[in-house]
Design a protein that fits this description.
The complex is a heterodimer of chains A (about 325) and B (about 325).
Chain A (H helix, E strand, L loop, with lengths): L1 H28 L6 H5 L5 H11 L5 H13 L18 H36 L4 H14 L3 H20 L19 H39 L2 H8 L4 H38 L5 H10 L3 H29 L7
Helix pairs in contact in A: 1-12, 5-6, 5-8, 5-10, 5-12, 6-8, 7-8, 8-10, 9-10, 10-11, 10-12, 11-12
Chain B lengths: L14 H6 L8 H11 L1 H18 L41 H37 L1 H15 L3 H15 L4 H13 L1 H14 L3 H8 L4 H9 L4 H24 L11 H16 L2 H29 L9
Helix pairs in contact in B: 2-13, 3-4, 3-13, 4-5, 4-7, 4-8, 4-11, 4-13, 5-8, 6-7, 7-11, 8-11, 9-10, 11-12, 11-13, 12-13
The chains are: A mainly alpha (about 325), B mainly alpha (about 325).
């Protein structure tokens, strides 16, 4: 077991190393010098640009730049200088990223919370009432949501629930961008909660809808498999009540695969945050990422990619461990 | 699919059929597949819808459509931009005065090219890696599978974005090709795993042993004996990858790393229209039509994939009504 964990951690480290090399190489070969904007400014002399390039180490060969970056990056405890400086100004990358982490976390936990609370019970109910009207209708709905790109869903929600709803009712229910209103600090406590929710609902729901579709489909299939298993037939034959059969025998086993799915989805949603945060102008890591790529501010891009990659590795490992812990039939080798 | 009972073998009757006197026809794999697939009504419908979409997109030149990139103007020479749907322009016109219907049809050409190319690349590469790893085993297997694991554990979207930014410069003007290379490179891992698992079990079967005893070489055993038996999961997975590719292409286009205008693509049109619609122009038709085309296509691909899985998987029982 311990051996298994250690081996997985080593693979994880290799993955992260490969990820950093791939991303770094791609960024190096993508056109656009990080200092392009400075060079375009006639008031900045050649001298200054030269000094800037030296300051950021841009005059060094790429391999050297990578090694310097990697050496500093792993020493993340040297807050806030470890992850380098943004090319856009005096800001430290570590500070920038950690400031944005809160926004992403708020969005992600709300969305995943919603998805778990709705998706899993939905799947269970669909399986118990297989082929009923409710099952058919919700399964079709899941299929449609699952086939919709998240940005279409987000834009649709913005148009219908924010713009049109406001036109029809004259009341502003939801905001389409940002995390808080500009007047946030002047609001009373109650109004602050309201304002937060008005901003949070649409982006969280658009992420949640897609995850709900995934979870419920998976939960339904897993529940159906268990419902048709031999030990469940035994439980029924013993004369146990329907409730006891479903809750005690079926549910416990049917939940195991979904727990894996949910933990893997955390990483997926985090990567998908790039899109959601762009649609809703949400001040999170994903938006920072897109903005940084546009101007080739690579220390930021690298930091965000590595954080997401780290989450993927950790969640993959946790998913496998949880699976083995919950289902004693699984063996590690 | 292969009709397995070939040559002059006597037809095989299943005991059940004979007992009930239902059938005297031999039940071939192909026939089983057809029965199961036709039973899956949604998959049938999806196949028909996809067929229609493919025809429309392939023969777009023959349709009485405007040019997708021409700025249209009325008789006074004024550019007709942002017209809502009406008799003349069924899907309206966009902010540059281009016909949305023509762009949806031609955009389908771009989006489907990317998707189908990606599907083909994934099928080829995934099958190759999976079959070599599964057939030879040993260090070859370990090496290839570690590599597959590595690809599978990269964060898909962030890496795709960085790579798309790079590839777009390398393939200036041929974004459809660059996107399918990108998606093909990132998506083959799952199929490789599936094919490897199939090969691991199939290579121990008697017919493989018989082929080897008859002196067949590795290449012949892999391609002529084992691969045809592992086709089902490959077909199903390649189909599902096509759906994923359409969605990813759309996502990349939304973020500005996909197909560049004026060449249309569904994701790019929906994204662009979305910005305008949310920005207050109220031009809902710019979002609705490309999104609708995209969703219908992906939905059909997914239903088709599901139906194929049910029909091709011999362990499935014909329970579904």
């Amino acid at each position: 077991m311990l051996q298994y964990v250690v081996r997985r951690l080593v693979y994880g480290l290799i993955t992260l190393l490969a990820l950093s090399i791939i991303t770094f190489t791609l960024l190096q070969n993508t056109g656009g010098d990080p200092l392009d904007r400075l060079k375009a400014n006639p008031r900045i002399t050649q001298q200054t640009i030269q000094e800037m390039a030296e300051f950021y180490g841009l005059d060094q060969p790429a391999t050297k730049q990578y090694l310097t970056w990697a050496g500093n990056f792993v020493q993340f405890w040297n807050y806030p200088t470890a992850w380098g400086r943004s090319f856009q100004g005096p800001q430290q990358v570590q500070e920038l990223v950690i400031n944005r982490l809160g926004g992403t976390a708020r969005l992600m936990f709300t969305a995943l919370g919603l998805a778990v609370m709705i998706g899993i019970p939905l799947g269970i109910y669909q399986a118990i009432r297989q082929y009923s009207f409710f099952d058919q209708a919700t399964t079709t709905f899941s299929f449609v949501t699952f086939s919709t790109p998240i940005f279409v869903l987000g834009i649709g929600l913005q148009i219908i629930l924010a713009l049109k709803l406001e036109q029809w009712t004259g009341v502003k229910f939801f905001y389409t961008s940002g995390m808080n209103s500009t007047s946030f600090s002047d609001l009373s406590f109650g109004a602050r909660i309201g304002d937060t929710l008005q901003h949070l609902v649409l982006p969280a729901v658009s992420i949640a809808l897609i995850s709900i579709a995934g979870y419920s489909r998976y939960q339904r299939a897993s529940m159906l498999e268990v419902l048709h298993s031999d030990y469940l037939r035994t439980a029924k034959a013993k004369g146990l009540s329907r409730r006891s059969v479903i809750v005690k025998h079926a549910l416990r086993n049917a939940l195991i695969p979904v727990i894996t799915l949910v933990s893997l989805d955390v990483a997926g949603v985090l990567g998908g945050a790039v899109i959601t945060e762009s649609i809703f102008a949400w001040p999170g890591m994903g938006r920072l990422y897109i903005q940084a790529i546009a101007i080739n501010d690579w220390p930021i891009v690298m930091a965000v990619v590595m954080l997401i990659g780290f989450m993927v590795v950790v969640m993959n490992l946790l998913a496998d461990l949880a699976y083995g812990w919950l289902d004693p039939r699984v063996r590690y080798d | 699919m292969t009709d397995r009972p070939s040559g002059n073998e006597p037809p095989v009757y299943s005991a059940l059929d004979e007992a009930e006197g239902l059938s005297v026809e031999p039940v071939t794999q192909w026939k089983l597949f057809k029965t199961r697939f036709v039973r899956h009504r949604l998959a049938m419908l999806a196949a028909v819808v996809l067929g229609i979409i493919l025809l429309l997109v392939l023969f777009a030149d023959l349709l009485p459509l405007q040019s997708p990139t021409e700025q249209l103007s009325d008789e006074n020479g004024r550019i007709v931009n942002l017209l809502s749907p009406r008799g003349e322009y069924w899907f309206g016109t966009d902010e540059l005065g281009q016909d949305v219907m023509a762009r949806v049809v031609y955009g389908g050409r771009t989006s489907l090219t990317v998707a189908v190319l990606t599907g083909l690349m994934v099928a080829t590469f995934g099958t190759l890696v999976g079959s070599i790893a599964g057939y030879y085993g040993g260090w070859v297997d370990t090496l290839l599978m570690r590599f597959t694991d590595l690809i599978l554990s990269l964060p898909l979207l962030p890496v795709a974005i960085v790579a798309a930014a790079w590839l777009r410069e390398a393939f200036e003007g041929r974004e459809a090709l660059s996107l399918s290379i990108l998606l093909g490179t990132l998506l083959w891992g799952t199929l490789a795993r599936i094919v490897r698992a199939e090969f691991l079990s199939l290579r121990e079967k008697e017919f493989v042993e018989a082929a080897r005893a008859a002196g067949a070489r590795d290449r012949r055993i892999i391609f002529r004996h084992i691969l045809p038996n592992a086709l089902s999961p490959i077909i199903v997975n390649a189909t599902l990858v096509i759906g994923i590719a359409i969605i990813l292409e759309a996502a990349l286009s939304f973020l500005g790393f996909g197909v560049r205008p004026p060449e249309p693509a569904w994701g790019q049109m929906a994204a662009n229209g979305g910005r305008l619609a949310v920005g207050g122009s109220g031009a809902w038709w710019l979002v609705l039509f490309p999104s609708f085309a995209l969703i219908i296509t992906v939905l059909s691909v997914n239903f088709l994939g599901d139906g194929l899985r049910d029909a091709l998987d011999p362990t499935q029982t014909i329970e579904r009504k």
